[in-house]
Model the fold of this input.
Amino acid sequence: MSICNFVFTGIFASEMILKITAYGFIRYAKDPLNSLDAFIVIMSLIEFITAFGITNKNHHLTKTSQEYSIFRTIKVFRVLRFLRIARLLRNLESMQIMIAVIKRSFSQFLYIALLLLLFLFTYALLGMQLFGKIS
Done:
């Protein structure tokens, strides 16, 4: 797992460096998703430096004895990398149409869900009245 983490951190770091050189730092920092990616990559790099930075006598990378609880909580932000998919969905016209249809039909879905909840509640009360007094 740590090898995959190392590989993907390297890929994301190289992507960040390429984007900064292509767009320039100011234009790169204006996009909130780029800022999120940069935050995640920088925290991952700091994690590698602190967690795997100390080498032993055999020159193998080993974890330090101290557990870094802050980095465990920051790992949760890696899940937000999936927001990149949302960035791709903005550009696909067919996906935009599907998302618009889902948005429009969501209000009707709420009415159906409330109706089903009402039926569930009614039958729960009926079941309690009919079968609740059985000893």
In short: Residues 1-90 form a domain with the Four Helix Bundle (Hemerythrin (Met), subunit A) fold (CATH 1.20.120). Confidence is low (pLDDT under 50) at residues 54-58, 61-66. The CA atoms of residues 48 and 81 lie 18 Å apart. The first helix runs from residue 2 to 23.
